[in-house]
Specification:
Elements: H1 21-26, H2 28-56, E1 62-63, E2 70-71, E3 77-89, E4 92-103, E5 109-110, H3 127-137, H4 142-152, H5 159-172, E6 184-191, E7 200-214, E8 217-229, H6 233-240, E9 246-249, H7 255-262, E10 267-270, H8 272-285, H9 290-306, H10 309-318, H11 323-336, H12 348-361, H13 369-384, H14 386-390
Parallel strand pairs: 6-9, 9-10
Antiparallel strand pairs: 1-2, 3-4, 4-5, 6-7, 7-8
Helix pairs in contact: 3-4, 4-5, 5-13, 6-7, 8-9, 8-11
Length: 408
C-alpha cells in the first residue's frame, strides 16, 4: 500500500443550450461517477510518482524482479513511460496508468507498484465491486445480479466471472464460534445437485448463543459453525461441534449412528416437531382421516410437553395397530423422554434455514456439488456470521476527503 496526501485539480466543462436545476440533477449521478473515476486515476498516478521520487532520493528501496538488484538512489533505475490499465469499479471502468521502470543492470522493464496498490496480475474487476456483487448473488441468480450490477453500479461483469469469484470466496469461508458451545442444532435438506435423483444432502449446524427478550417476543441469537453438501456432510457438521454436550437433530435415517460415532459424549435429542410431523405422515400412509391425524398429533405434542413416560407408553399402545407408527415411537423414545428436560427440544430454527436454502437453490436447473456448496457457504456466512464474512475481503482503510475551494 502507498500513502497519499495530495490535491487533485480537475477541470469540468458544462455545455447545454438551456439547463435548469432538474436537468442538472438528472445528470448528477453520472457526473459524480465520472468525477470519481477521474479522481481515482489521478490519485493512483500521484502515489506512484511520489514513491518513485522517494526511491530516487534514497528514502526507499526497490528490488528488480529479474536480477534481484536492490535499487536506491539515482543512476541504476530508468523511467520507461507508463502502461495503461482498466479496472471495473462500482463507479464504472477506471482507466489509469501504471508507471514503468527499467533496471540499469539487466535491462528488464517492469511496473513496480501494481502489487502495493492492491492490484493482482490481470485483475479486471475491483475488490469493492466484487463484494457488492457477491452480496447480491446471495438472493438472485448470477445473470440477474450482473444485470443489476450494470444498472445500479455502472460496472459490467459477466456471469462466468462472477461465478468464478463466488467459488473462490466460498472455498475460503471458515465458520467459527465465539462462545462456549452448549447446544448444537443440526438439520438437513435436499438440494438439486449432483447426479442423484433426489439430489444431495445439505446439512447446517447452528450454535445457540443466547435468547434475548425483544418487546413481546424472544429473539434467538444463533451462529453457524458447520455446513456441508454431499457425501460426508453430516459427519463434517457434527465434527465442527464435537465438544458440545447436547446435539438436537431430526430422525433422518442413519443420523443416530453418526452422532454416536462423531459426538460420543454428547446427549442426542430428537426434534419433537419432527416427531409429530412424521407421525402425521405415517398415519397418512395408513389411510387415517385428516381430523384424526391432527388430533393424534396434538395429543402427542401435549404428552411431550408434560414429559410423561406413562402417557407416552399409553399412546404407543393405542397406536400399536399401525406398524410404522409403533416403530417410530419405539425408536424415538430413548432420544425424547429424558428424565431431565433439555435446553432445546426442536430444530425449528435450523428448519427455517432449510427453507431459505431451498428457496435459493430451486431455480429450475441442477447444480454441481461444488457450485452449490460454495454459494451456500458464502450465503450462510453473510447471513449469520458477519465477522467470518468480513474476513473474506480486504480491510477498509479510512480516507479523508476535503473539498478545496478555488478562487473565482
Amino acid at each position: 500500500m502507498l500513502a497519499v496526501n495530495t490535491e487533485v485539480h480537475l477541470g469540468l466543462k458544462v455545455a447545454s443550450p438551456g439547463a435548469e436545476l432538474n436537468d442538472l440533477a438528472v445528470q448528477g449521478r453520472q457526473l459524480g461517477a465520472a468525477l470519481s473515476r477521474a479522481v481515482i486515476a489521478r490519485c493512483l498516478w500521484t502515489m506512484q510518482e511520489r514513491e518513485l521520487g522517494r526511491i530516487r532520493v534514497g528514502a526507499r528501496e526497490l528490488a528488480c524482479p529479474g536480477c534481484g538488484v536492490v535499487h536506491r538512489g539515482r543512476g541504476s533505475l530508468l523511467r520507461r513511460g507508463r502502461r495503461a490499465r482498466t479496472v471495473q469499479t462500482s463507479s464504472g471502468p477506471v482507466r489509469f496508468a501504471l508507471r514503468q521502470v527499467s533496471c540499469g543492470w539487466c535491462r528488464k522493464t517492469f511496473c513496480p507498484f501494481g502489487s502495493v496498490l492492491g492490484l493482482r496480475p490481470r485483475q479486471r474487476v475491483a475488490e469493492e465491486l466484487l463484494e457488492r456483487l457477491d452480496s447480491g448473488v446471495v438472493d438472485l441468480s448470477y445473470r440477474k445480479t450482473c444485470a443489476l450490477g450494470h444498472e445500479w453500479l455502472g460496472g459490467t461483469v459477466s456471469p462466468r466471472t462472477l461465478w468464478r469469484e463466488v467459488q473462490a470466496r466460498g472455498r475460503r469461508v471458515a465458520f467459527t464460534r465465539r462462545r462456549p458451545l452448549k447446544v448444537l442444532l443440526v438439520d438437513g435438506t435436499r438440494v438439486r445437485a449432483g447426479t442423484r435423483l433426489r439430489g444431495e444432502a445439505a446439512v447446517v449446524g447452528l450454535q445457540i448463543e443466547r435468547r434475548e427478550p425483544r418487546g413481546c417476543r424472544i429473539e434467538v441469537r444463533k451462529r453457524l459453525i458447520g455446513f456441508g453438501v454431499g457425501l460426508g456432510a453430516w459427519e463434517m457438521v457434527l465434527a465442527a461441534g464435537s465438544t458440545t454436550p447436547l446435539v438436537v437433530t431430526d430422525a433422518a435415517s442413519g443420523v443416530r449412528e453418526k452422532v454416536r460415532a462423531v459426538c460420543p459424549q454428547a446427549r442426542h435429542q430428537l426434534c419433537e416437531w419432527h416427531l409429530t410431523h412424521s407421525l402425521k405422515h405415517f398415519l397418512t400412509l395408513h389411510g387415517v382421516r385428516p381430523a384424526r391425524r391432527r388430533a393424534l398429533a396434538r395429543e402427542l405434542a401435549l404428552i411431550l410437553g408434560r414429559r410423561s413416560w406413562r402417557a407416552y407408553a399409553t399412546f404407543q399402545e393405542k397406536l400399536r395397530q399401525y406398524q410404522n407408527v409403533a416403530s417410530l415411537l419405539e425408536q424415538a423414545a430413548p432420544y425424547i423422554m429424558y428424565p431431565e428436560p433439555s435446553a432445546e427440544r426442536t430444530t425449528s430454527i435450523a428448519e427455517r434455514e432449510m427453507r431459505e436454502i431451498n428457496r435459493r437453490t430451486d431455480v429450475g436447473v441442477r447444480w454441481s456439488v461444488p457450485g452449490v456448496r460454495h454459494l451456500l457457504r458464502l450465503t450462510l456466512a453473510k447471513r449469520h456470521n458477519p465477522d467470518d464474512y468480513a474476513r473474506l475481503w480486504q480491510e477498509k482503510r479510512p480516507i479523508h476527503w476535503q473539498l478545496v475551494p478555488q478562487l473565482a
